[in-house]
Each structure stands twice: as structure tokens, then as C-alpha cells.
Design brief:
The longest helix has 20 residues. The protein is built from seven helices and eight strands. Strands 4-5-3-2-1-7-6-8 form an eight-stranded mixed beta sheet. By secondary structure, it is α/β, with parallel strands linked by helices. β4 and β5 form a beta hairpin. Homodimer.
């Protein structure tokens, strides 16, 4: 089975229907020659339109998962990679995928993925998975990194088949529905401060590589 890195409630979604007719959204879509329904929600561009959205503090930040995936996919070790979106969808990422390092190209790729549901070259590079979150974590020890968790030396916990769960949204906390999907999990904290998703990913990946290098490389 092996281990998996799962980014939870990622701020990655097309512009929701209720704001697609907002002037700033329509202007952005027109500038890019796209349908407003087919562009990613981005707080830096759609801030005015997002004011009315529920949970808006958690939304519109595709740059977060872009940075985290670039870091994670650079690792030579073997593990599965999943992106769980804020709307509860699951994206499987092939470990051999080399994402665009340019943010705008990444956005274009994700917009294509949301439309076509799969990106492939010689092999499938990424696709939306029908497998629910609870099935992905099944038979793995679930480690949820959360500010309110235990401050422990977690290195020894990374030796088996684990599901390493990291929030990939800018503010707020996990939805109760997501926590229920995870089932039994252990909450781990890197400290009592609020850390960025990229910093958390970096800390965990460094420790994972230290523990697993001899086994997985």
C-alpha cells in the first residue's frame, strides 16, 4: 500500500456559480478568453466578488497547493499524492508528474483538469478520483497536522503506511465533515503558532525523507 500525502480542503475550485456574473469575474474571464465557469477562483483577482461567499477566508488561493506540490513532487521517495478540494473532490497526482513552476501555467493546467477531469500524456498525470477520502486513508495510520494537536516527536510515526494530512487553505479550520471522513486519526502540531501550509509540508517532508530514505529510495 505505501504512504500517502493528502492535502485537505485545498483552496482549488472553479469560480462558483453564484459569483460568475460579477463584473470582476467577467472581466477576468474576458481578458483570458474563457468562460467564467472555467476559470479558477483566485482571491488576488476576484476579491470583491468573493465577499459574499461562504467560508471565503478558506477559498481562492490556488497558489498554496501549487507551492506545496512543487516541493513534494521534487522528492525522490515513493508515496501517493492526493489533493482533496474544499468542495470535497479528490484529485490523484502521479508521482512522475512535473508541474509547471510558473503559477499562471499551473492555473491553466488546473482549469483544464476541472473541465476534462483527467490530464494524460503517455500516462495519466492527474485525474479526479471516484475513491472517497475514507477509502484512501483506510488501512493507513492517519496523521493530521493541526495547530491544536499534540506536540510530539512524530518521526517514528512515519515508518509504516501512513496518511499524512495537511491543510492547504489560508485561514480557518477543518470542516467537521472532513474530520469524520478521516475516521480515527492522530492530531500532531508543529507548534502553537500558525504556520503556512508550505512550511508544514517542508518540515514533514524533511522528516519523512530522514526516516524513510533507506527504505524507499
Amino acid at each position: 500500500m505505501g504512504s500517502a500525502f493528502i492535502f485537505l480542503e485545498t483552496s482549488l475550485e472553479p469560480v462558483p456559480e453564484e459569483i460568475r456574473n460579477h463584473p470582476v469575474v467577467r472581466a477576468d474571464a474576458k481578458r483570458r478568453g474563457k468562460n467564467p465557469a472555467c476559470i479558477l477562483l483566485d482571491d488576488s483577482k476576484h476579491h470583491l466578488a468573493m465577499r459574499s461567499l461562504q467560508f471565503r477566508e478558506k477559498r481562492g488561493r490556488p497558489d498554496i497547493i501549487h507551492q506545496c506540490l512543487l516541493l513534494l513532487l521534487d522528492s525522490p521517495l515513493n508515496f501517493e499524492v492526493y489533493v482533496h478540494t474544499i468542495n470535497g473532490e479528490i484529485i490523484w497526482i502521479n508521482r512522475k508528474t512535473r508541474l509547471p513552476r510558473n503559477y499562471n501555467r499551473f492555473v491553466g493546467l488546473m482549469e483544464k483538469l476541472f473541465v476534462e477531469r483527467k490530464i494524460a500524456a503517455d500516462v495519466t498525470l492527474m485525474e479526479f478520483a471516484d475513491t472517497p477520502l475514507r477509502e484512501i486513508v483506510k488501512d493507513r495510520e492517519v496523521l493530521l497536522f493541526r495547530e491544536k494537536g499534540e506536540m510530539v516527536d512524530f518521526g517514528r510515526m512515519l515508518e509504516g503506511d501512513v496518511a499524512i494530512c495537511i491543510g492547504a487553505f489560508p485561514h480557518g479550520d477543518f470542516f467537521e465533515e472532513t474530520l469524520r471522513e478521516l475516521g480515527f486519526f492522530r492530531e500532531i502540531s508543529l507548534g502553537r503558532e500558525s504556520y503556512t501550509s508550505l512550511y508544514v509540508t517542508s518540515r514533514i517532508l524533511c522528516e519523512y525523507e530522514r526516516v524513510r530514505a533507506n527504505k524507499d529510495h
